[in-house]
Every structure is written in structure tokens, then in C-alpha cells.
Specification:
The protein is α+β, with helices and mostly antiparallel strands and 98 residues long. Helices cover 26% and strands 35% of the residues.
Amino acid sequence: MAEVTITREDTDARHGRYVARIAGIDAEAELTFTRHGPDRVSADHTGAPEALRGTGAAAALVDAMVADARKSGFRIVPRCSYVAARFARHPEWADAFA
């Protein structure tokens, strides 16, 4: 599997996105989010262009958000169907989800 680099970009006080990039591929996957107070963040949409499908980029985005939730003390509201599906496969993440 390719090495995926994840960054978090805060668009404004309430919105932002996690971005996945892979060296040598001119494309990026993203997971957009909205803050609903200090302890709730919704995962709104996950998208990956064809060039990044099958690389693990989308899964890495969710993994990064779960790690941030645990580190920063917020819980994730999975509005995105992809995030909800990943959560269903990882019951050990229950502490990170609202």
C-alpha cells in the first residue's frame, strides 16, 4: 500500500477538512467536517478521486480523524456514509463516536 500523508486544514472556526496525498499522484482525497461545539464534530463527506481509489487514502482520513478525536477529546458524528461504514467495522472506536 502507498504511503499516505494526511494534513488537517481549518477553513474557519467551524469547518475544515482532512486531506490525503500520495507522493507522485496529482490528486487528493478529503474528509470534510463541521464543529458543533468543543466536544462534537460531524464527519460530513469523504471523497476520493479515481486516481486515489484503492490506495487506502480514504481509510487513512478516517483513521486520522479518530486519532484527533481521542487526542483532543471530541466525539465524531458520522454524517458521511463512508465514515459510518468504517465505524461499523471498528467497534473499538466506540469511544470516539457520538
